[in-house]
Amino acid sequence: MKRFSSFVFDFIRAAFSGGPLFWAWLLFLSFFIAAYGYGQYVQLVNGMIVTGLNDQISWGFYLANFVFMVGVAAAAVTVVFPAYIYKHHDMHKIVVLGEMVAIAAVIMCLLFVVAHMGRPDRAWHLVPGIGILNWPNSMLAWDVIVLNGYLLLNILGGFYFLYKKYTGEPINKWFYLPIVYIAIVWAVSIHTVTAVLINTMPARPMWFHSIMPIKFIITAFAAGPSLIIIVFLLVRRFTPFKIADNAIHLLSQIVTWCLGIALFFMLSEVVTELYPSTEHAGGLKYLMFGHHGLNALVPFYWTSLGLMVGAFILLLIPRVRKNLKILPFLCIAVFLGIWIEKGMGLMLPGVIPTPVGEYAEYTPSNIEYMIVAGIWAFGFFALTILIKGATGIMLEKVKYQETTEQPSTSKHPGTAATA
Amino acid sequence: MEKNSRENNTADIASRRDFLRKAGTYTAASLTGTAMLLSPKPSKATANVSWAEHFQKHYRLMTEEEKAEAIERLEKRYSEEFGKKVSVDGSTAIDGVLFGYALNIQKCIGCRRCVKACVAENNQSRGKEQEIEWIRVLRLEKGNFSEEDRDKGGYPDDYGIQVGGNAYKPAGVVLEGQHYYEPDKVPEKDAFYLPMQCMQCEKPPCVKVCPVRTTYRDPDGIVVIDYNWCIGCRMCIGACPYWARRFNWGEPDLPKEDMNPVTHYLGNRPRMKGVVEKCTFCIQRTRKGRWTACVEVCPVGARKMGNLLDPDSDVRKVLATKKVFRLRADLNTYPKFFYFMD
Amino acid sequence: MTSNKWCGNLIGLCFLAAVLPSTTYGEATPAGKQCFESRKDMSQVQQKAIHPGEPNVKCSPTTGAVLWWGDPFDGTIPMGDMPVEADYSHEEAVVRPREPQIDRNKLLTICSMACHNGQYVPYPKDKLPRPLRMHNDIVPDAMKLKHGKGAIWCLDCHHAAERTKLIDHFGNPISFNEPQKLCGKCHGQVYRRWREGIHGKRIGMWKVGAKKRWWVCTECHNPHDVEHGEQQSGFAQLDPEPAPMLPKGMKNADHERLHEHTHYSGH
To answer: 3-state DSSP helix/strand/coil percent for chain C, to nearest 5?
Structure first.
């Protein structure tokens, strides 16, 4: 117990130790988090009428970000997967960073869902026992299970590894490896379930495609590693933590191929919809070309497509892909492109036009911008301190024997725990 | 006479309301004071909610005593809030009854009285901030009769051969329905109308996707919502192919004097912000034997409703003698809302 | 005897002269809020309270149409016998009497008493059409009857001797309250559907066997103009209720009025 509490204490200490730049960054994020708190308060008091949502467009900015973040969370597997299946040596050490990304991303997902809910005060209705979880009927029930399960698995796997590293004890493979393998499958499941959540509604023809789950996963495997590459490059720059170029090259290859396949899927969808151009193509046509003067999404679609196609072409060139000065910009382009394509570009044309053919335009309200920006800030805040703490332990800056004030008790942790 | 005094009373109320309305238009000086009187504040339905209401169970899982308690709680709160005796009914489905509906699309003149009657009956939110209507009438226009489209109008004519695959104009009818039509008079010469509301599907997609089973199908075929159990996730709104469900984005604005005090727990009782609502075939009426407000108001008698299990009911007679169709039959939702023609 | 009748006629005429300039056929004296049920001006209802705070009807503030009935049977009378094979013995059918609507100012009563009593103005000898010399103002649609395409005329429906009655095939009078007995003479198919409850409007209890208020033919249709111009719907055009609120953020609904099915490449 003593060891555990000192682990927690030291993790927090490592997480919150840094130079002025680090504190400035946290302060900067805190500003947005405070705005998020205010926005969420206003929304709770007045209801969702403070958003730009309405009966025509009842799913918007929050869920768009939710869907995207589920992808980022799932992408942690792209780090874990090669490390364990192919025993990729460089990846092995940094798996835990991917898990930290996943934890931060899932927390963001849950916050986006809370923001989307009309009655977050009744969230307990979802808890089996005191409430009713409509499982296995409701896809949302599945999503609740897989997301929370994924969060637990990553916390368990990531912090077990760190804890053992911290105490210097060997890892119990019979405990740790199953968690990792389950987490790999589970990562695919969270995004599959999220895709299935929206593609099982024939009322929304834009989503009603069997390509959706695989497209979700493939875009996640493009956007997620893009973010992870940026995180790794930042970690390399600002901490002494070593991440080999090899690991980054592997990730950028994953980004390239997944992005290529994602573009192919997009093309398949466009051809399938626009060639016959039935009424069901209304959403996609609205997204790509607008509808009788309602053109809000058109620039976003083409920007996103431009970013993705441009980044893909450049990533195909090995010299460019391996240039770590250019790569972050390409990663940002991929991340942004997919964020638009899979966020608002997926959510809005799914609900516009309505199932009875009504077109309306949607602009998020200031409160929505505040809440979304705040949740992103919260996610980055969490990610920063999680990675800071994790690298602190991985670099053995903090270690159990060295940091305990009474080294003698560390030899007999059992007796210390009772004290 | 008592009857007379009642009449005077309503007349008084009416004239007072008129006066206030005028005062509001013409007086700027007492703006704040008038405004308070003028806009009967949205009853803060959640203002006095007791802890017990907050933590009550799903309606279907309550015992009879718990149901009675919940209903009594609501009646007390509503009566205080709306300044009149409000009843909340908890009637269950009538044995041997499965409700069905038939709408004569040929008769409908698009006057939207059903829409407004529904609002008068079912205590929806109204006003500028959020106006909730459970029925939507679509105007479908006949048109696109153009001589020149025969040969031009988008037909690629390379080699003088019309390919046709990209014919851009739906000849004879305008495909897109209009929701916000406002002609001086209805029916119009070149249009017909299609009212839509909850179809009370036998296989309702909205019920399937609800993560907390707050919306469910009752044995008489009505799909209901326990407003106190809804978490406001709006999955059902996404899943409904008929766009029948509405959400209380803010606190509903229900003026005291317009509030219909005869309510049902699963029907037209005042809702709170953050929950979904929809047509319940006027469950507070139909379970007491009375026709729905939309059936009653239709000035052309286009709306028929009754017991699908009774061969002599209006709806069964329609099914027996008319050609009927259902919307989006391809989705296998099995609506109990039929459209027919003479 | 004769002089007495003349005297009566004179009194009636004076009364008529007093009433005519101020009222036209079918208009009611305004007293409180008037709404109409199906046909404007021909199915008026006076708003009142049936219980404290509960009105008998709720009316549309924009069109004046009745939207909601507090008591569906308020002001009704039993429908009476149905002449043909219908089986109504098992359920209570009521109607709102048409006579007070049609003869709101008791004009028809006065007419038949004062003039059309067979003496002052003799009863017509046959049903043949003839130009009306009078009354184009009080029966505005009489001269341009849009019913039957010229094959029928006033006395095919109206009783020649009793101005407050309609007429059946045998020459017997039919009350204005029971126009279905008249209309069913020709429109047998519709009449049958109406009796079955599929055609026309009923309010009250949905259950077979429970009490219903039936709408009779002339509550919805204008028998003097069943064509209603080009739309041929059988109904007079009405003022529609206002359109729903536009979705948040939308200034207008112009986009749905654009019909060009423009292809995307056309932009």
So the answer is: 25, 15, 60
| Chain B (80-109) residues lying within 8 Å, Cβ to Cβ, of chain A | none
For chain B, the domains span 1-38, 99-139+193-341
Closest CA–CA distance from residue A175 to any residue of chain B (Å) = 33
Q: What is the pLDDT of residues B213-234, one digit of tens each?
A: 999 999 999 999 999 999 999 9
* CATH class of segment(s) B99-139+193-341: alpha beta
Q: Is the CB of residue B91 less than 8 Å from the CB of residue B285?
A: no
A128 prior amide bond cis, ω within 30? no
Selecting from A53, A141, A351 the residue whose C-beta is nearest the C-beta of B211 gives: A141
Secondary structure class of C126 (helix, strand, coil): coil
Overall residue count recorded for chain A in this entry: 419
Instruction: Give yes or no for B141 touching C (CB within 8 A).
Output: yes
The token pair at B50 is 């007791």
pLDDT score for A98: 85
* Tens of pLDDT, residues B248-300: 999 999 999 899 999 999 999 999 999 999 999 999 999 999 999 999 999 99
> Which band of pLDDT confidence, cut at 50, 70 and 90, is reported for residue C118?
confident
Instruction: Kindly provide the ipTM of the predicted complex, given to two decimals.
Output: 0.89
Q: Which of A40, A132, A143, A294 to mutate to test the interface with B (most CBs of B within 10 A)?
A: A132
Nearest 5°: the CA angle C44, C47, C50 is 125
In chain A, which stretches have pLDDT less than 70? 78-79, 83-93, 401-419
- C-alpha R_g of chain B: 24
Interface list for C 189-208 with B (CB within 8 A): 193, 196-208
* Chain A CA closest to residue C266: A289
Kindly determine whether residue C243 and residue B175, on different chains, have CB atoms separated by under 8 Å. Answer: no
Q: How far is C257 from chain B (nearest CA, A)?
A: 7
Model pTM greater than 0.80?
yes
Residues C62, B318: Cα–Cα separation, whole Å: 33
A26-403, CATH topology level: Formate dehydrogenase/DMSO reductase fold (1.20.1630)
Q: Chain B contact for C235, CB < 8 A?
A: yes
In chain A, domain spans = 26-403
Residues of B in contact with A357 (CB under 8 A): 138, 176-177
Cβ-Cβ contacts under 8 Å, B296 against chain C: 68-69, 72, 203
Interchain contact, B121 vs C68, CB within 8 Å = yes
